């Protein structure tokens, strides 16, 4: 099936992936990660996009988010690029684009796939051999979800709140979930849907409900 036109649905969950050109590093030191997160925090507020989970990898990034309108996501990504790319190019004395084409995004059914996609994103550093434990990776939302630190970028999703009646209950439940490895078919589903722009949801899922 051909790649579908990129779809943005206000109020629905979206998984966004963006790679560096030629799979080159887009973050080279701690200051780069921190600068990007600063602009991500600012842009999410400017364009009213709720960020529910994220991870910044050396050569790509993942975001799990809910835009409030049809244009907020695209405007947010464009704005961040206009801040981060000149910063990166000046610092490393390079020119040209930093990104490999346009970002990839797909709409996700939150009821069925929020937790799976959240774990997929935050366990990425472990799957890629960067750390043995997701708590050891500094540039993801994992520590927020297990209660180890408060991350002002994150807007907790209703499915996360449903994990328990108290913060302790939610954090413990999420940690337990994260300790379970994702199955290969779950990883394949998320990767294929995001790469091709397919909606990831059940047959009953109504995009505009």
Question: Could you explain how this protein is built, in words?
Answer:
The structure is a single chain. This protein is of the alpha+beta class and 209 residues long. It is 42% helix and 13% strand. The protein has 8 helices and 4 strands. The chain has a 4-stranded antiparallel beta sheet with strand order 2-3-1-4, with helices on both faces. Helix 1 packs antiparallel against helix 2. The chain is globular.
Main beta sheet strand tally, sense and closure:
4 strands, antiparallel
| Terminal CA distance | 26 Å
- Kindly report the average pLDDT value: 93
Q: Helix- and strand-based class? A: alpha+beta
The count of β-strands is: 4
Portion of residues within helices: 40-55%
What topology, given as strand order, has the largest sheet? Answer: 2-3-1-4
Poorly predicted regions are: none
Summed up, the helix count is: 8
Order of helices and strands: EHEEHEHHHHHH
Strand content: 5-15%
Shape: globular
The radius of gyration over CA amounts to 16 Å
Features:
209 residues; alpha+beta; 4-stranded antiparallel sheet; 8 helices; 4 strands; 42% helix; 13% strand
Brief characterization of the structure:
The protein has 209 residues and is an alpha+beta fold.
